[in-house]
Design a protein that fits this description.
CATH class: Mainly Alpha
CATH architecture: Orthogonal Bundle
GO molecular function: cytosine transmembrane transporter activity
GO cellular component, one term: plasma membrane
CATH topology: Hydantoin permease
Number of helices: 17
Distance between the termini: 34 Å
Pfam families: Transp_cyt_pur
Number of domains: 1
Strand content: under 5%
Structural class: mainly alpha
Radius of gyration: 21 Å
Order of helices and strands: HHHHHHHHHHHHHHHEHHE
Family: Belongs to the purine-cytosine permease (2.A.39) family.
CATH superfamily: Hydantoin permease
Protein name: Hydrogenase expression protein
Length: 410
Amino acid sequence: MNTTSTLGFKHFLFLWFGAAVSVPEILAGGLLAPLGLASGATAILAGHLIGTTLLALVGLIGFQERVPAIESTRISFGAYGARLFALLNVLQLIGWTTIMILSAARSVNEITKILFQIDNTTIWSVTIGALILLWVALGRESGWKKLNMAAVWLLFGLTVVLSWAVLRNPVVAQQPAAGMLSFTEAIELSIAMPLSWLPLAADYTRFARSGKGAAWGSFIGYFTGSCWMYLIGLGVAVKTGNADPAAVMLAANLGLAALGIVILATITTTFMDAYSAGVSIATLCPGLNEKHMAMAVTVLGAALALIIDMEQYISFLLAIGSVFAPLFAILLTDYFILKNRRIRPELQANWSALAVWCVGIALYYQFLDLKLALGATIPVIIVTAFIYTIVGRFANTWTYCKQQPKPSQP
């Protein structure tokens, strides 16, 4: 495995800011509109502070051990556990690739209907998929790093313009809360987005030059970008009742700049989904080329975007939280509290860790039903970590290890 240390603080800052700038993040922020601007913004900042801290910690493991995120789960769960999580991660990332392409195609279609009288979501799904495929093909080459930085700077400028167009109206801040969303649910929807990136973080930090640069670059880049997108979505939805930014960008006479924001943001974010899906597939099937698998995921995502809808977006976000919150609570507890930091090649399955993970998933949905003030993710992480701190000390009696060959007699 190539573990050349080529990425520094600024690379992670740009990488994760670019990943956060996307239409689905804006749409997710719009889901918080029933709370109003003030309460919605509080939920966004609180949820992202928690979720992005976890993102930075998981990335730090990748830097220290020089392994991808899914491979690092072998520390706690063994080889079979890592394969299970690789499969779940591939499914999640195919889902995200599909959602990214579909949401962007719909927004672009709304823009081109007005600008050019072109009304065909299918064409835009295929076109955006092809552009992402080209970005994936460039891979991690040195030219790609410069291109990605240039893209993020352009996105930053376009996002400033979009923010001004959306939030300059003081009426937005005065809109009362309306709807049925609770503050607890709002925090969960804010945490869910950074949680979805946990299985990807170490795929990039394993190439970092320093742990501090990887952790802080990832944290600042994603926290800033994602909170910004959520706030834009919240402002758009409070102002217009619809979180899709396309209409607001057109109303602000952004024209071609609107197309640039949507398409470029989708490319930089979906690249990370597809690339990490390729890494997870390579974990499942050693010997397969990561880049080729990432390209295959891009093609599949574009194809699925032609036939699915986005009605289950909230359920998808909550399902991500239910799976990955207890999973990484166990890994972080094992690594930072119990000091288990070595991948044991002979460990096939840690049944105690897998059992605690299943308990954590069940507890997540129970906590959602209880509508606790802290939401579901924080209690699940605390309870799961507490249980595993106790159970993990006796984990060796609940593991399955392959038999090691006996040394030959002289």
